[in-house]
Every structure is written in C-alpha cells, then in structure tokens.
Amino acid sequence: MTTEVLYPTSADEAALLYGSGDGLTVFGGGTILLPEIAAGRLTPTRALMLHRAGMASVRVDGDRVVIGAMTPVAALVDGPDLVLAEVARHIADEEIRRSATVGGNVCAPPGLDAQRGDLGGPLIALGARVRSVGAGGERTEPVEDFLAGRRDGRLVLELEYDRFDRRSGTSGLRRRHAHSYAIAGVVACSKQDGSELRVAVTGVGPTAVRCRIVEQSRDPADVLKDVAPIDDAVASAAYRETVLPKLVAEALDQLERS
Q: Cβ contacts of residue 147 below 8 Å, gap of 6+?
C-alpha cells in the first residue's frame, strides 16, 4: 500500500491540508504512532508530517505564553513556567522527551497499558487554551473542554495561557520501568492571594481532569467526586483511590506555602 505524504511548511498550510482530518494520520514526534505502525496496529494511507511547519516554539507574547504544538516536551523543562517544567521533566525518559511533542501529548489516545497525556494536568491548572482546526473551522477553547471532547478530528496548532504571578503546588507518584509511567499526578495553581484556585489530576484515566469540586471545597477527599480512577498495568483503581486524596493534600499544602 502506498502512503500519500504531505509536508506543510507553515501552520496555515498544515491547517489547509488537514481539512476535516478524514483519513489523515498526523505525525508530530512519532513516539506514539511509530510503535503502533511497527506492531501492525496502524497503517496510514495519508500522512501529514508537521516537522517543517514551523510550529515548534515557546514564546512570551505580552501577558501570554504561547506554545506551538510541535514544541518538544524537553523544551518545557527549561521553559518560562515552573509548573510545566516540573511535570515535563518526569515524562517518560530524556530520549522520548526530545522527540515527543506538546501537541501529541495533549492529543494522545488512551494507552493500552498505561495512561498518557501528563501535560494536561499543568495546562488545566494554568488555565491554558487550545487553538485547533478541523471540521467546523478554527476554535480556541479551555484545555479541559478540549480533552473532554472528541479530539480525533482536530489538529492542534498551539496552546496559550495568561502570564501572571501564581502560587502553585504539584504532587505525584510514578513507576519506573524502561520509561517513567504516571500512577497519579496533581497540579494546583492560584493567584497570589489564593483566589481562582484551579486543580487538575492526571495519570488516573484516559485524560487529565479539572477538579471543580475540590476547587470549591478545598477538601482533598472530594477529589474522588471529581475523578474515577481506572485499572491499568501501572496501578489498580483501588490503589489510585487510596493515594489520590493524599496527593491532592500535598499539592494544596505546597501551594499554600509557595
């Protein structure tokens, strides 16, 4: 079978070639897709290669931070935000972080044996927004809404969040193997006066989740009203349910002390 390969040289051209996304496989860093192809679970007929599209940058634009979808996860480790850096430096291993992209992490489908999409946690806590194109045209929406909806027909172009002094806290558990796999992770951010608290959990299900009940009550036990942990090869749902309130408490305590 012959694969049609498309090489856009700009974000605008990538959006045009993507169209509605029907029958198209989008290649970013390839850390998810290449193992799928090698295992025979995926055979692309049309491929959109984003390596030349000029979408790999982290820039401060006035009071916003803008992250291109093709930005390597490794670039966030030395980026302008400590919360993103803290989570990014623990994803997988150094080799994967150099290849894996921010857009790919946000769009990652559920894994077979472990959860993906670790960056969703800090992006939700930071109040990030996703700019994407696809059927219905271009739209910008909160990252938690993007993650909760259908992502398979969207091409992420960039993410952005507002830049201001924040208090923050992070806590998590990971299991070391060939790579570092998330058992559970919690990220919390607020303004310096403690208002506008945002709490997110990642690693316990197919996508990161915003914990609105915890934000209102500030009670770590309420996290199990916001999320429903699942079983996988990394940890059981029961174990995640046990440790998650403790991780939320740690993240909130760290935020209060920051």
A: 106, 117, 120, 124, 207, 208, 209
pTM of the model: 0.95
Question: Which pLDDT score, from 0 to 100, does residue 20 have?
Answer: 95
Whether residue 1 has pLDDT greater than 70? no
Of 67, 79, 71, 59, the residue nearest 99 (C-alpha): 71
Beta bridge partners of 154: 134
Going by pLDDT thresholds of 50, 70 and 90, the confidence category of residue 144 is very high
99: closest CA among 50, 138, 36?
A: 50
Q: Which helix (H) or strand (E) holds 169?
A: strand 166-176
pLDDT digits (tens, 9 = 90+) for 186-232: 999 999 999 999 999 999 999 999 999 999 999 999 999 999 999 99
- Among residues 37, 52, 35, 32, the alpha carbon closest in space to that of 1 is found at 37
C-alpha closest to that of 226 among 215, 204, 211, 241 = 211
Write out the DSSP string of 50-76: -TTSS---EEEETTEEEEETT-BHHHH
Q: Phi and psi (nearest 5°) for 66?
A: -120, 130
- CA 227/CA 210 separation, integer angstroms: 9
